[in-house]
Amino acid sequence: MSAVGVPIKPETLRWAMDWAGLEAEKLARKVQVKPEKVERWLKGEERPTYPQALKLAQALHLGLARLLLPPPEVRLPLKDFRRGRAREEPPSPELLEAFHDAQRKQEWWRERKGKPLPFVGRGKGASPAEVAQEMGALLEAEALRKGGRDHQGFLKALADRAEALGVLVLRQGHVGTHTRRTYDPGEFSGFALVDPVAPVVFLNAREHPSRQVFTLAHELAHVWRGEGGLEGGLEEEAQDEVEAWADQVAAEFLMPEEAFRAAWNGYLPPLEAAREASRRFFVSPRAALERALRLGLVGREGYKEALEALREAAPPRPKGGGGDFWKTLVVQNSPAFVRELRRAALEGEVDAKDVAFLLNVNLRTAWDFLEGKGVPT
User: Structural domain boundaries of the chain?
Assistant: First the structure.
């Protein structure tokens, strides 16, 4: 007599597979069954055993109970400012986990700080130039540019300065310590959770550092405006008024008009001039080219030719994993957040389980952290 099996909903299993991006064959390998068995589960002809159902839930990044219920309507709990095709797709499990991780940190940080930051929401109703000027003054942008060596160094310096003002900056390329569960730059480049006390900016570290620089400036513009949201495909022209405004703020903040005009080498072909400006202002050549076009420093035809050449020679995206584990963990979870969490733990305000939950790590790693590893200077 065969086992009764777990009464999972076939339609929910199909939804979960689509959500996790797994075909029957790949899911079968994870659950250690033949693809034909997964197909029978999908048709309702057979039910998985309890051990198989547990493996299914683990492979699909869901609780087992979720597979026993009808498929949910998955909505992103964040205003979606993405552009192009990405906006039409449902959020991936990785994107949802990124949001919830940022939200957990924000809630904890809000309870500890309590005091509103004066600049959050102050830019609403102001012009992009006005907001860019204020951001530049508070973040000391010109000094950071003069002291920067490369895109990665400038990105770190700008993120550190934003954190000094009270904005948590999370730079993650994958879910927690699961290096194979990477964030897709084609789905999103970053987002901002705006709060008067605890604003959070999340950057997809799978993007090139030069691209992350613009995303960080763009998300900080959202903080100044007091309206957060999810971003993706910032290379495409914004259709939303808020997004267009944030793009203009970021461009003026990173590439002030007067300085950019003075630095733009009109004697060079547009592509070479853009690459030179990219090194000067620590942005991508694409961002420099866009700025030159809007300021009338390059014609439409020259812009199109240079843009096509950039697309053909796009730099490889950063790979996940590798490097110093503890340094990466600090960057992923915000240096300011990590310092405060460790201080709270040492004073007995949070325990190892809280640390594991807030840093998105296992309990063993949390204990290592409490013993002094991974403490940012």
Answer: 10-68, 84-254, 325-370
